[in-house]
Write a structure and sequence with these properties.
GO cellular component, one term: plasma membrane
Helix content: over 70%
Order of helices and strands: HHHHH
Oligomer: single chain
Number of helices: 5
Cofactor: Mg(2+)
Keywords: ATP-binding, Cell membrane, Kinase, Lipid biosynthesis, Lipid metabolism, Magnesium, Membrane, Metal-binding, Nucleotide-binding, Phospholipid biosynthesis, Phospholipid metabolism, Transferase, Transmembrane, Transmembrane helix
InterPro entries: DAGK (IPR000829), DAGK_sf (IPR036945), UDPK (IPR033717)
Radius of gyration: 19 Å
Membrane topology: Multi-pass membrane protein
Number of domains: 1
Length: about 130
Amino acid sequence: MDSRDKHQTEKNHHLIQAMCHAIDGIIQVLREERNMRYHLLAACLAIIMSILLHISAMEWLWILLAIFVVFTSEFLNTVTEAVTDLIVDHHYELNVKKAKDVAAGGVLISAIFSVLVGLIIFIPRILAIIR
């Protein structure tokens, strides 16, 4: 049996098959990427705060947007790292460094966006409780 018999090399033929591969990818990122676990923890905290502070439907949309923007950017950063490492076989290359730095910068920008969204939504509600 050669490797073509053990691993899928063609497109998914069914939606269920595609969904299983997508779930495998999510699990792999959560297992292997420390920063993704931090993002997941922050998302859980934001959701708990949102529930406790009874935010509006519009505010929920902003919180969920912020969460999924960070998740998406972290996934794209992970893809960038994996593909560039594959191309250069884990050797230093200036263009690979640039690609990785830009992808990481995208994650940072999305995280800053998320923090700002959280501050704008949560600070007034927390201050109202404290007063």
